[in-house]
Design a protein that fits this description.
Elements: E1 2-4, H1 11-17, E2 50-52, E3 67-69, E4 72-75, E5 88-89, E6 95-96, H2 107-110, E7 115-117, E8 122-125, E9 130-133, E10 136-138, E11 143-146, E12 151-154, H3 164-170, E13 177-181, E14 192-197, E15 205-213, E16 223-224, E17 248-250, H4 252-257, E18 263-269, E19 276-280, H5 283-291, E20 306-307, E21 333-338, E22 342-348, E23 352-357, E24 366-372
Parallel strand pairs: 5-7, 6-8, 7-10, 8-11, 9-12, 16-17
Antiparallel strand pairs: 1-2, 3-4, 13-14, 14-15, 15-17, 15-24, 18-19, 18-24, 19-20, 21-22, 22-23
């Protein structure tokens, strides 16, 4: 099986979210030598992690990885295309530490890898910024320039970072992808992987609910008590209900371990073209998510929510109804809706999947996300 990750994603991060559903090529199973293929869109000049798994159950063994692209005939010779990177290199050009474009793979700084500043390049640490990293290697005339109050500190332990906002605060060059966090810090809870959106509305968003639902099906929801869902496909018509990593939502207790003051809702359906995309910091919404008692009342007031890029839906402004005291399904079972008109429902009321509409069943393909920051 073969996976290709996101730009600037680490191999270890790709390993944590790999599933049979998101493999580019799936040649698994017991069989003789067989060729399988897949396609993926990549950006020229951008680096991507590649993960290949091979197993043998007796008999001869053989594995060949080939590729082709526009202007490149099918070949298994990747000597001019594959590379092994241990740590960071500033090979794009000089720039500020907190600019992602300065680094080949900026997320690796958070992962504790050493960095190298190449000959003739200068990395600036702007005034008021602290540069957290592993070992720094300077090649030739490569420099790390501290402006006024700019400072360098050794990497923080990953277990000291509780959410994606923490990561972005300490490593402002970080790009969207999978990270390791410890939601309760020094508490008894362990670490978990999470997906961070580091671009939307300033970034720092932690994914806590992710359901890509296929119309005509009504799969069970997954309440995650010690982990968080990761990002998989975002294309309507997909079905991720079999995924143990990308299907599910955090329990109230799990949400209570996360430190957040903002919640972002995103939803779309093939039933219509409207998109739900807004954020709120309403205190009763935050409380309801964390303890499972209460409701989303007053979210409809314009002062209590902010619409974000792409939002065209009637909700939450048209909201007039709220389910309350729903415990671990507080964010899936109609937290805000307008009776028989517009609803936010995820397997709600026994099997209704709705995004700003009222099909009153599971017939439509839907996609729901909730993020916290």
């Amino acid at each position: 099986m073969l996976w290709i990750g996101n730009s600037n994603e680490t191999v270890s991060a790709l390993e944590t979210r790999r599933t049979a559903l998101n493999a580019i090529v799936n040649n698994s199973g017991v069989h003789g030598v067989a060729e399988r293929s897949g396609t993926v869109s990549l950006v020229n000049g951008t680096k991507y992690p590649i993960l290949v798994y091979f197993g043998e159950d007796g008999g001869g063994d053989a594995i060949t990885v080939s590729f082709a692209a526009a202007g490149i005939a099918k070949t298994s010779n990747g000597s001019s295309y594959y590379s092994a990177t241990n740590g960071q290199t500033n090979s794009i050009g000089s720039g500020n530490f907190n600019a992602a474009a300065t680094w080949d793979t900026p997320n690796n700084i958070y992962n504790g890898n050493s960095i190298s500043i190449q000959d003739g390049h200068i990395v600036n640490v702007p005034n008021g910024i602290i540069f957290y990293s592993g070992k720094i290697n300077l090649t030739g005339t490569g420099k790390l320039n501290f402006n006024t109050s700019g400072k360098w500190m050794p990497n923080l332990p990953q277990t000291s970072l509780k959410n994606c906002k923490d990561i972005l605060d300490y490593y402002p060059m970080s790009t969207s992808g999978v990270y390791t966090i410890d939601p309760d810090g020094i508490g008894s809870g362990g670490t978990t992987n999470c997906y961070c959106d580091m671009t939307t509305d300033g970034g720092g968003w932690t994914l806590v609910l992710n359901y890509l639902h296929l119309g005509g099906t009504n799969p069970a929801l997954t309440v995650k008590t010690t982990s968080l869902p990761l990002l998989g496909s975002t294309t309507l018509g997909g079905n991720e209900s079999a995924s143990s990593t990308t299907w599910g939502h955090a329990s109230s207790a799990m949400l209570n371990t996360l430190s957040f003051t903002n919640v972002r809702f995103y939803g779309k359906t093939n039933f219509h073209s409207r998109i739900i995309h807004f954020k709120t910091s309403l205190s009763n919404v935050l409380s309801y998510m964390k303890v499972g008692t209460g409701d989303f009342s007053n979210i409809q007031n314009g002062a209590n929510h902010t619409v974000l890029s792409g939002h065209t839906a009637n909700l939450p402004a048209s909201t007039a109804n709220f389910f309350s005291n729903q415990g671990n399904i507080s964010i899936t079972n109609f937290p805000f809706w307008l009776v028989a008109t517009y609803h936010w429902g995820i397997g709600a009321d026994g099997g209704r999947w709705e995004v700003d509409d009222y099909p009153n069943n599971s017939s439509q393909s839907t996609y729901h996300q909730i993020w916290v920051r």
